[in-house]
Amino acid sequence: MSVVSIQERRERERAERERLIVTAARELAESEGWEAVTTRRLAEEIEYSQPVLYSHFKGKDAIMAAVAVEGFADLAAELRAARTAAADPRQALADVGAAYALFAARRPALYDAMFTHAVDLPFATAQAPPALREGFGELREALRPLARDDDLETLTETFWSALHGLLTLMRNGRLRRDDHDRRLTLLLARFSR
Amino acid sequence: MSVVSIQERRERERAERERLIVTAARELAESEGWEAVTTRRLAEEIEYSQPVLYSHFKGKDAIMAAVAVEGFADLAAELRAARTAAADPRQALADVGAAYALFAARRPALYDAMFTHAVDLPFATAQAPPALREGFGELREALRPLARDDDLETLTETFWSALHGLLTLMRNGRLRRDDHDRRLTLLLARFSR
DNA sequence: GTCTCCTCGCTAGCAGTGCTAGATACAAGA
DNA sequence: TCTTGTATCTAGCACTGCTAGCGAGGAGAC
Predict the structure, then answer these.
(1) Which residues contact A150 (CB under 8 A, 6 or more apart)?
(2) Chain center to CA of B174
(3) Are B167 and B115 in contact (CB under 8 A)?
(4) pLDDT digits over B156-186, tens only?
């Protein structure tokens, strides 16, 4: 048995355990909310002691950031699917918007880690996680045919923000739940004229 | 000295202390953030022991809710000032939007208590705090002349959400700070055509 | 094959959190 | 003057994120 292969197995196992941590954190957050995700609970879930978490991540925030990055990938995939399946540009924007809203509604805890919680991740720069840039790119491409004379980047950021505002305000009770579709329709009308 | 007057003085002093608590919480949150507002720190600030807080409020969340209600009054006043000072409807909407953004930028902790934190307050109903309804009303009146065929209430909620999204995403680093004015301008254009 | 060393994961504990039970001092009324 | 009730405090509970330092067990040297 070579030295290298033993080291490799160890690194592999370590990487597996790291994924185990992130997955456990995501599942726990999705099923019981982030306030239920404590280091003790997480340690119990992965069947290791607490300090093991800190050999993988700097702290709880870093774990949340890792969960967020996973989420970006999922969101990007769902947006892409929605955009490419649509018949025309207007429909594409509507579908992408609906897919975004659905993602936020179905996985609120994950969404919070990605966009609400103050995690230490680079965002609106070239250093941002590729999955995040990709998701943003889907929104941009959906808007491109409808941009007219507006700067595409600015337009995308603004539309994204509006969508984000609708979802967050509704989710913590600031907006009436049953008017959601009407608001979404109105927003789409204003951005796809 | 009558019995009633003594009781009255006591109730007056109690009410004063309650205001003291709310003010201390707001100031502490604004200067050092909500994570610095602990019950111990707050008790120290008002020069009483911890349990006194719980004779006024059910818990920390209730204190935050009280701070939020104070904030709604401030915001409503600033929005009203901006709206009534404007020359024409388009300018009014622009000024109200700018006033809203300025409020959120100048008092981020207060804004969070009002719109981000999950406080136990009625919002989009008739039971909502008057100050909150008033602030929302200012937005609605600013939008009324520009509503055309859209439902005014839905339009207001949507515009408000868009504004909220822009501010929150920018503030926790999801958007580039220097593009803020461009995004705001774009949003106003889409809502005041 | 034996011994040493080093890495890894553990137990135990620190300083902080929100919140509360029970003791206590103090003022009002008999 | 004595009793009663209330307002306030001290002390403590159960929890949080995080870490120091110990001990077992495998890797490498001889």
Answers:
(1) B186
(2) 22
(3) no
(4) 999 999 999 999 999 988 999 999 999 999 9
In whole angstroms, what is the distance from residue A106 CA to residue A15 CA? 28
CA distance A112 to A134: 19
- First-to-last CA distance in chain B? 67
Q: Using a CB–CB cutoff of 8 Å, tell me whether B36 touches chain A.
A: no
Q: What is the DSSP letter of A141?
A: H
For B121, which DSSP code? -
The answer on pLDDT for A5 being more than 70 is no
Per mean pLDDT, which of A2-6, A150-154, B174-178 is the most reliable?
Answer: A150-154
For residues B160 and B86, what is the distance between their CA atoms, to the nearest angstrom?
A: 19
Minimal Cα–Cα distance from B83 to chain A, Å? 22
Residue B134 CB contacts under 8 Å (≥ 6 apart), including other chains: B72, B73, B76, B80
Asked if B64 and B28 count as a contact pair (C-beta separation under 8 A), the reply is: no
What would the pLDDT profile of B3-34 be if each residue is shown by its tens digit? Answer: 556 677 777 889 999 999 999 999 999 999 99
Q: Which stretch of DSSP H or E encloses residue A52?
A: helix A50-56
User: How far apart are alpha carbons A187 and A18 in whole angstroms?
Assistant: 41
- Contacts of B29-38 with C-beta under 8 Å, sequence gap 24+, read B29/B67, B29/B109, B29/B110, B29/B113, B30/B107, B30/B109, B30/B110, B33/B109, B34/B64, B34/B109, B34/B112, B34/B113, B34/B117
| Interface touch B161/A154, C-beta < 8 Å | no
Are A64 and A119 in contact by the 8 Å Cβ rule? The answer is yes
* Angle formed at CA A48 by CA A46 and CA A51, multiple of 5 degrees: 120
State the residue for tokens 């009407």. Answer: A182
From the Cβ of A55, is strand D under 7 Å away?
A: no
B123 touches chain A (CB under 8 A): yes
Is A163 touching B (CB cutoff 8 A)? yes
